[in-house]
Amino acid sequence: MTNWKELEKKYFMRTLVRAPLTIVKGQGSYVWDESGRKYLDFVAGWAVNSLGHCHPAVVEAVKRQVGELIQTSNHYYTLPQLQLAQLLVENSSLNKVFLCNSGAEAAEGAVKLARRYGKLHLNGAYEVITATGSFHGRTLAMVSASGQLKHQQPYTPLPAGFINVAYNSIGAIMEATTSTVCAVMLEPVQGEGGVNVPSPNYLKEVRRWCDEKGIVLILDEIQTGIGRTGSLFAHQIYGIEPDVMTLAKGLGGGLPIGAIMAKDKFSVFTAGEHGSTFGGNPVTCAAAYAALAFIIENDIPRNAYDMGNRLTDGLKRIKERWPALITEIRGKGLLLAVEFSDVIAKELTQKCLENGLLVNDVKPNALRLMPALNITGDEVEEALSLLEMALCRLRSCQG
């Protein structure tokens, strides 16, 4: 059998530490390794596989499109791109779309759009307020935007134009707002930062402040959008609308795609001011259209809400049996975190893997759970059982 670990070590840059698992097949909420062992996947490609692995609607759309047209350029019209744009606009509060290839590109493009708006309408204002603990991507500008020192320190000096303030503090945003600020960019729920949920009125207060100051509110829904939190977009839970929104991850049903969406007033790019060679690729757009249409037509966000509640209730029962170890269960829908009183997440993730459950150690003391949005109740119960079994292997079953 090929030693894939050594092959990766030989040929790849050392940008991450992989789990000791080579996945060769996926179907629904399960994956298989090269020896044929089956695993329940509660990582879902970092919240990418919105309908699980190889969903028939996505597979058929990709097969059909690959046989018809793979790539042109944005110099021409293509049907999958236009169909996806229409579906996004008709099911959101925003009016215009730009399609790209990833969440980082979407976030970068949204900041460019806000700066362009600032130049045109805010006397050249260019700074963007973001939150500590946020994560907006790994381009150099988005590293600067993301309020996490661990991502920033290796790349100093960072590009200017970003002000990191405390998350969930309207006062911090108000204090940081000067005449040079053009936008506020926030995740409705911080994903990579540890699944941090704001207070109920926070986003409404931010919305009011942006309206008062005439600045752009950008919501990064790269991880929270497309049904992940129990509604099609997370901002709907909080009763607000953004001026600009970024999407990626679950939008493509497993294929790489990102999107910037904006209200007409803030859609200020003109020809040549932004672009992408591969953005809006016919194959990825066909996949995204199929995934999004299935999610909307089958009310998959409702399933994410119901299964999220079921998973949360189960995690709370486990917490009751492990009160000294589990300190908090938090999240929305099927974006959840389990926080511990000890730094055990990495070791527990390994124990889960050995038991046949894939989870993500998002912080040294916290696991992140983000399964497919169409997961079943039986699969939720299986995951809860495997997780507690892993806890028992890691610690005494007495708690």
Automatic annotation (TrEMBL):
Which GO cellular component terms, listed alphabetically, does the Swiss-Prot or TrEMBL entry include? Answer: cytoplasm
- Pathway this chain belongs to: Amino-acid biosynthesis; L-arginine biosynthesis; N(2)-acetyl-L-ornithine from L-glutamate: step 4/4
Q: What Pfam families does its record include? A: Aminotran_3 (PF00202)
* UniProt keyword annotations, A-Z: Amino-acid biosynthesis, Aminotransferase, Arginine biosynthesis, Cytoplasm, Pyridoxal phosphate, Transferase
Q: For this protein, what does the record note about how its cofactor is bound?
A: Binds 1 pyridoxal phosphate per subunit.
GO annotations under biological process? L-arginine biosynthetic process
Which protein are we looking at?
Acetylornithine aminotransferase
Q: Which organism is it from?
A: Dehalogenimonas alkenigignens
